[in-house]
Design a protein that fits this description.
Length: 97
């Protein structure tokens, strides 16, 4: 599957964001699957994540990459398990935030 590799600024918490303590990282976005991954993990997202935000550096498109179909399937399985676990946790524990 065709992916887009971006360089963008991310924040680890609201505290980091309010103090301007972001980190520039590389991230691969798979538009067809609406999945992205970086050194911190994989998650569902869309094109809006890569649009210019006010007072932030614009994400930079670095390259296009081809991600193996087997790897895309593995990412999808991982995200399904993660979502199922979050659902189970929510079933028994009240979520705050």
């Amino acid at each position: 599957m065709r992916g887009k590799k971006y360089k963008l600024k991310v924040y680890h918490s609201v505290l980091h964001w309010t103090h301007g303590m972001g980190e520039m990282i590389e991230e691969v976005f798979l538009p067809e699957a609406k999945v992205a991954f970086n050194k911190y993990g994989a998650f569902r997202t869309d094109e809006e994540r890569y649009e210019k935000k006010k007072d932030e550096p614009a994400p930079e498109l670095l390259d296009e990459v081809e991600v193996d179909d087997d790897d895309v399937e593995e990412l999808q399985r991982y995200l399904k398990i993660k979502e199922d676990v979050e659902r189970i946790i929510g079933k028994y524990l009240k979520r705050v935030g």
